[in-house]
Amino acid sequence: MTCKVLVAGAGAIGGFYGALLAKAGCEVSVLCRSGFDTVKRHGFHIDSHDLGQWQFKPAQVLQHAGDYQGDPDYILVCTKVIPSLDRAALIQPAVKAKTAIVLIQNGIAIESEMQSAFPWHEIISGLAFICSNQTAPGVIRHLAYGRLILGNWPVSVSDKTLQLSQRFNQAGIECLTTENIVAGRWQKCVWNAPFNPLSVLSGGLPTLAILQTQEALVRGVMQEVFDTAKALGYPLPDDIIDNNIERTYNMPPYKTSMLLDFEHGRPMETEAILGNTVRAAEQHGIACPRLQSLYALMQLRELQVNYLP
Amino acid sequence: MTCKVLVAGAGAIGGFYGALLAKAGCEVSVLCRSGFDTVKRHGFHIDSHDLGQWQFKPAQVLQHAGDYQGDPDYILVCTKVIPSLDRAALIQPAVKAKTAIVLIQNGIAIESEMQSAFPWHEIISGLAFICSNQTAPGVIRHLAYGRLILGNWPVSVSDKTLQLSQRFNQAGIECLTTENIVAGRWQKCVWNAPFNPLSVLSGGLPTLAILQTQEALVRGVMQEVFDTAKALGYPLPDDIIDNNIERTYNMPPYKTSMLLDFEHGRPMETEAILGNTVRAAEQHGIACPRLQSLYALMQLRELQVNYLP
User: Fold this and answer.
1) pLDDT score of A255
2) Does the pLDDT of residue A1 top 90, yes or no?
3) Active-site residue A98, yes or no?
4) Cβ contact (<8 Å) for A202 and B290?
5) Which end of chain A is more exposed for a tag (fewer CB within 10 A), N or C?
6) Considering B40, B98, B188, B230, which one is annotated as catalytic?
7) What is the ipTM of this complex?
8) Residue-wise DSSP of chain A
């Protein structure tokens, strides 16, 4: 039986992973708002640094989830996690009894809202380690990396998760599964929590310049994430901070996703990445003055964008 | 005998206070780099909200302190305190045996460098509470306030300090003296340490918007300044934080001096206001993660200004 997939938020992430699943034989449809006309007519053009170029023609191209024909096995939610977007409402009309909801999104504690909206559905939480851009409507450049980690929320790995992981691997991208995806989110947060806001608040510095001049602050923020994760029952490896520092020194200077959003005037994932982290720390009585300062400053920065001409 | 004054750094602050001393009968000369030609030809035009308008013709207008003719009783140093400016070298050729050096400048711990350079001279430390702008070369608008506090560094009030204070009062501006000017600097720092960097890092928000949305961070930074001052032997009044918060709510929305410098591409007093505060805290083992974060971010912001096109 054909595996049916609906991708909600078919941008640089959703378009790319949707195209991979189509390659692996799934019937993939997309829900996209921006670029709808172009995608409807021409589908996607994928240009990947290591998987080559190909066209991806979605089975259905939709502006509203309610227009979806059929019962999807998976809905991949690949939008940004921002307060102005109600992800549950976005996909709700297309969610059927057997649909698993797959979140390929950034941030901490982004699953419970979806589990509340769909209490009887499988929630698969996913982390993407990828550099990709949408350079024009329907045109996606895959620049580097691409690895996925999937796990059921809050714990375990279901058959459906394993099957999805196999499809991704079949299409040529590494996809691992984990029994503890929440710990995985905290691991990723160790890097995201300092570098995303610092890149914006510094006025646009790439990661290497930040690290070379303010390593102590970066380490301080990482330590607060580490302490918070531990207090929540997700102890991270002892060397995770050193490893993240070393890895970042060895990366080419890199613009974070938050900086790219800021530079393009798009909403930033401040709440998903920083706000939820700060709230988790505060609820567990973990001191996080650096995270609180960065969070407050990001809120001021966002206020300023709307405040001044 | 005429009281002779040389003002080094005759901008919005130095030009204004120099003009007041001239009004009070002193022989006032100025050392100014920018605007030299205009000031040499026309002197200063002062336009004060409560003291009226007048012309101030300096006795000598100099580009180099070595050109000064005579023995000044006071040298008023009114430049910004920035690492690229050697204040001692700037005034050194004009400093004579009886000259008192008066610092009307922002920041913490800005006196010891001058005392080291001139170990046998009186160092008078001063705080100005004033809004004034130089709107064109030689044109100074005094917008609000103007109060001065003077005291010998590190403690006491000398006859020379009292006499200078009397001149200012004579000219119509309130000038107090204090036995403990260092405590006065820490008091002023309670306000400066949060609002100056936050106004820059927020992207240009006025004080009221910052306070209305991020009062907790502002209070957190103030508390760290309070704790540091206490550890250094300068206990501040218990209600100083509440008073500063309340006063700022009642001020008209205000652009800090650091924000004005940033907007005009001028060097900022990051080291004098934040760096020296952080170093004082660190030397005394006082936790100051918020101050450290703001200081690191300001350094990143300054790096960015020189880094990107």
Assistant:
1) 86
2) no
3) no
4) no
5) C
6) B188
7) 0.87
8) ---EEEEESTTTTHHHHHHHHHHTT-EEEEE-STTHHHHHHH-EEEEETTTEEEEE--S-EESSGGG--S--SEEEE-S---TT--HHHHHGGG--TTPEEEEE--SSS-SHHHHHHSTTS-EEEEEEEEEEEEEETTEEEEEEEEEEEEEESSS---HHHHHHHHHHHHTT--EEE-S-HHHHHHHHHHHHHHHHHHHHHTTS--HHHHHHHHHHHHHHHHHHHHHHHHHTT-PPPTTHHHHHHHHHHHSPP---HHHHHHHTT----HIIIIIHHHHHHHHTT---HHHHHHHHHHHHHHHHHHH--
